[in-house]
Amino acid sequence: MGRFVDLTSPDGHRFMAYLSEPAGTPRAGIVVGMEMYGVNGYLQSVCDAYAADGYLAIAPCLFDRFEPSLTLPYDDGGSARGKDLSARIDHAHTGMDAETAADRLRAMEPGIKAAITGYCFGGTVTWLAACRGNFDAAIAWYGSNMCDYPEEKARCPVICHVGDADTAVPPSDVAAFAAKQPDVLWHVYPGVPHGFDNQTRPARYVAAASKLARERTRAFLADTVG
To answer: Which residues contact 66 (CB under 8 A, 6 or more apart)?
Structure first.
C-alpha cells in the first residue's frame, strides 16, 4: 500500500503524487503517467504492482495545475473533461512534473536508474519525457496522442503496447509513427481495444493481453534499469 506525497516543481508548482515502495532495496525507480482520469484506484494499483516487483513507483497528479488531486469518473462526462484537459495542458509542464517525481525517487535511493511508463494520456507524456527528459527507459501504453510527435528523438530505449482495435491509436497512426521511429519497439495485440490493461473497466480489459504486456514490460525493465 502506498501513500500520497507532496512535491514541488522547479517553477514553484506544488502537486501530489502517489508513492509506492518495495519491501526491500529497490531495483530501480519508475514514474507512472496517469490516464486522463487521474491518479485513481487503477493507477494506484499499477504503482503497487510495480512496487511488488521491486521498484520504487510514483504517479504524479498531472492535472494538479488545473485542479488539485482531480480524478474523473469513467463515463461520458469524465471522458469529455479528461479530453479537454489533455488538449489544454502544456507538455513542458507534464515533463517538468514527471522529472520532479523521478528526482524524488533518486533522492530516496541515490544512484538508481529511473524509467517512465504511462497509460492513455500518460503514454503521450511517457514518449515526450523519453525524448526531452532524463530517463533510462520508457514504456508507453496506448499513448493517445503519441503519434502526433513522430519527429521527436528518444534519449533512451522505448517500447509501446497497443491493440490493433484501438480507435484512439489506430494501426494506420502506429504504422506511420513506426516508419519514422524504427528504433521504437511496438507490441501490437490482435483484437484488443484502447485501455486493455485497466481491470476496473470490464468492457475494455483484456486479461491475456494485459498479462503478456506486463510480462514484456518486466523483461524490458530488467534489461534496461535493473
So the answer is: 85, 88, 89
33: left (phi over 0), alpha (psi -120 to 50) or beta: beta
Half-sphere exposure (Cβ direction) of 222: Cα atoms closer than 13 Å = 7
**Nearest-10 crossing angle of helices 121-132, 76-88:** 20
- What pLDDT score does 204 carry? 97
Give the 3-state secondary structure of residue 107: helix
Helix, strand, coil percentages (3-state) for the chain, rounded to 5, are 40, 20, 40
CB atoms within 10 A of CB 138: 30
E-assigned strand segments in 2-87: 3-8, 14-20, 28-33, 55-60
Which of 215, 203, 17 is CA-nearest to residue 108?
Answer: 17
Q: Who's near 92: CB < 8 A, 6+ residues apart?
A: none
SS3 (DSSP) at 199: coil
Tally Cβ neighbours within 10 Å of residue 94.
Answer: 26
Give me the pLDDT at residue 2, please: 95
Instruction: Compute φ and ψ for 87, nearest 5 degrees.
Output: -75, -30
Query: How many C-beta atoms surround the C-beta of residue 127 within 10 A?
Result: 30
| Whole-number Å distance between alpha carbons of 140 and 31 | 12
What residues of the chain score a pLDDT lower than 50?
A: none
Q: In the prediction, which pLDDT does 1 show?
A: 72
Amino acid present at 108 = M
